[in-house]
Design goal:
- The protein is α/β, with parallel strands linked by helices.
- Helix content is 45%, strand content 8%.
- It has 14 helices and 10 strands.
- The chain has helices at residues 2-20, 22-46, 73-81, 143-159, 190-197, 264-268, 286-291, 294-309, 340-345, 349-373, 376-382, 387-416, 422-446, 450-456; strands at residues 55-57, 86-88, 95-97, 110-112, 129-131, 133-138, 184-186, 210-216, 227-230, 336-338.
- The chain has a 4-stranded mixed beta sheet, with helices on both faces. A two-stranded antiparallel ribbon has the order 1-10. Strands 2-3 form a two-stranded antiparallel sheet.
- Helix 4 links the parallel strand 6 and strand 7 (184-186).
Length: 457
C-alpha cells in the first residue's frame, strides 16, 4: 500500500508541474501534431499539380527478348581452354583481354586482370589470369555418399574429357588447359573444404583457389539425390571491377524478399560499394546466381542425376536437355498506381516527425534529470519513497501525455495516408512514442545535469 500511496502523490506532483508550466505543455502536445498537419497541408496543396499527380504503371509481360540464358558448363570448359591475349584499344588507350567482357563475364573459374597488361599482343593466360578449381565432396562419411561422388566424377570425365588432358588420345583433339594442376579436385568432406580455403597457403601455386564446390549426400532412397552448392558469396569475376572488400555479391537462397517491391531489382539489388557484377545482376534476382555460376553448376548436377538414374534412356534413346535449353525469365508484374506526392515527400516525412518530437522529448529528459540535479530524488528516498514509485510515476505521467498526442497525430495522419487503416496508424504512433520515452529514460540515467542531458538527448 505504501507504494501506491507514494505513486499517487508523485502523480499529483507531476500534474501540478504540468499546470504550472501550461504554456510549455501546450507546445509539447501540439508540435508533433503540427508536424503531421504540415504534411497534410503540403499534400492538399500540391497533390494535383504537375509532377505530383498519381501515375498508373502498366503491367509488364516479358517476351523472348527478355529471356536470360546462362552459360552452360560446356561454355565454362571452353572458357578454360581459350587463349587470352592482351589487346590495346587504339582510341581509349586501355587494355582488354580477348574473349572476355569485363562488364559481363559470368565464368567464376577464369579471372583475368587487364590492368596488368603491358603491351599489345602479350599472352595473358599464364601471367594475368587466375584459374580456380572445381571441388566435389561427399556430404557424410557413408559409402553411398562416396559412391555418388565417384559417379559424379565419372560423369565429368565422360562428358567433359577436355578437363582431363592426361586421358586424351594422341590425335591431338583435346587442347591442354593453361594451368598445370587438376581442375576437378575431390575432397573428403565439407569440413575438408573449409580447411582448404582457410589454409595459409590458399591461393598459392600449390593450393589454387576454389571457384565453387558440390557436396553430394547419400539420400534416403535410390532416387533421392540431396546435394548442396557451396558458393563464394563475395565472388566477382572481373578483378577490374573490385570495390568494397567482402561485399555480398549473391543473396542467400533462404532470403525473404521484399513483398512490396515493384520490380526484382528492388527486391535484391546489390548494396552500394559492391563490385559490378554484370548487367543481369542489376535487373533480376536470378542474374546474381548466374554471375556466380550457381545456376550453371546446378544444371550440371541435375544433368548428372538424369545420367546416373538412367532417365536419359527412359524412351530408348539418348534423351538429354540441350546445353542451353534452360532459360530464365521474370514473372509478369501487375499494374499499380505510383503517387508522385509520396515519392517526392518520402525522404522528408521522417524528418518532420522527428522535428516535431524534438521539443517534447527534450522536455521529458529535462524533467527527469532536474529531479536528480536538485537532489529531490534523494530527499524523497529519505522519506521512504522507493525508486520504483519514482520511476513509474514519471513513466505514467509522461506516457499518458504522449499517448494523447499520438492519438491526435494518428487522427491527423489519416488524411495524409488515405489508403491506410487508422488503427495501424494509431499503433504506429503509440509504439513510436513509447520507444522515444524509453530513449528518454536511457539518456536520463546517464546524466545528472539537465542542460547536458538535453544537449545529448
Amino acid at each position: 500500500m505504501a507504494f501506491f500511496r507514494s505513486l499517487r502523490a508523485l502523480l499529483l506532483r507531476n500534474l501540478i508541474y504540468r499546470k504550472r508550466r501550461w504554456v510549455a505543455s501546450i507546445f509539447e502536445f501540439i508540435l508533433p501534431i503540427a508536424a503531421v498537419a504540415i504534411l497534410v497541408g503540403i499534400k492538399v496543396s500540391v497533390e494535383n499539380s504537375q509532377g505530383f499527380t498519381p501515375t498508373t504503371i502498366p503491367p509488364t509481360y516479358l517476351d523472348d527478348s527478355d529471356v536470360l540464358i546462362p552459360f552452360s558448363f560446356q561454355d565454362y570448359v571452353t572458357a578454360l581452354q581459350a587463349k587470352r591475349i592482351c589487346r590495346l584499344d587504339p582510341y581509349g588507350g586501355y587494355f582488354s583481354i580477348t574473349g572476355m567482357n569485363r562488364y559481363d563475364w559470368p565464368v567464376p573459374f577464369v579471372k583475368c586482370d587487364s590492368r596488368r597488361c603491358k603491351e599489345d599482343g602479350e599472352d595473358a593466360s599464364q601471367k594475368y589470369c587466375e584459374y580456380n578449381i572445381f571441388g566435389v565432396a561427399p556430404g557424410d562419411g557413408s559409402a553411398d555418399a562416396q559412391s555418388r561422388v565417384n559417379s559424379f566424377l565419372q560423369y565429368l570425365r565422360t562428358r567433359y574429357p577436355q578437363l582431363y588432358p592426361e586421358s586424351s588420345d594422341t590425335s591431338g583433339k583435346t587442347e591442354d588447359l593453361p594451368f598445370d594442376y587438376p581442375f576437378v579436385r575431390e575432397f573428403t568432406s565439407s569440413a575438408d573444404i573449409d580447411n582448404y580455403v582457410k589454409s595459409s597457403q590458399y591461393g598459392t601455386s600449390g593450393t589454387p583457389k576454389l571457384g565453387l564446390a558440390v557436396v553430394l549426400g547419400a539420400g534416403s532412397t535410390a532416387t533421392d539425390y540431396p546435394y548442396s552448392l557451396r558458393m563464394n558469396s563475395t565472388n566477382f569475376n572481373s578483378p577490374e571491377n573490385e570495390a568494397r572488400p567482402a561485399s555480398k555479391t549473391m543473396p542467400n537462397t533462404d532470403r525473404l524478399y521484399d513483398s512490396f517491391a515493384k520490380t526484382e531489382s528492388d527486391a535484391c539489388s546489390p548494396r552500394g560499394g559492391t563490385p559490378f557484377l554484370g548487367s543481369y545482376a542489376y535487373q533480376s534476382c536470378q542474374g546474381q546466381y548466374v554471375s556466380n555460376g550457381a545456376l550453371t553448376v546446378q544444371r550440371l548436377v541435375d544433368d548428372w542425376i538424369l545420367w546416373d538414374t538412367g532417365a536419359e534412356n527412359v524412351s530408348g534413346g539418348n534423351a538429354t536437355v540441350v546445353p542451353s535449353g534452360v532459360k530464365f525469365v521474370s514473372f509478369p508484374t501487375k499494374s499499380y498506381v505510383e503517387s508522385g506526392f509520396y515519392s517526392a515527400i518520402s525522404q522528408f516525412i521522417p524528418l518532420l516527425i522527428v522535428l516535431g518530437l524534438l521539443y517534447p522529448i527534450a522536455a521529458c529528459v529535462r524533467s527527469i534529470v532536474q529531479e536528480k540535479e536538485l537532489r529531490q530524488k534523494e530527499l524523497m528516498k529519505m522519506m521512504s519513497v522507493s525508486d520504483a514509485a519514482i520511476g513509474w510515476s514519471w513513466f505514467i505521467s509522461l506516457y499518458s501525455f504522449l499517448f494523447l498526442s499520438g492519438l491526435f497525430c494518428s487522427l491527423t495522419a489519416d488524411a495524409l495516408f488515405a489508403n491506410s487503416e487508422w488503427v495501424l496508424l494509431f499503433v504506429f504512433f503509440e509504439v513510436s512514442y513509447l520507444a522515444s520515452l524509453m530513449f528518454v529514460f536511457v539518456v536520463a540515467a546517464c546524466f545528472s545535469r539537465g542542460t547536458r542531458a538535453v544537449l545529448v538527448g
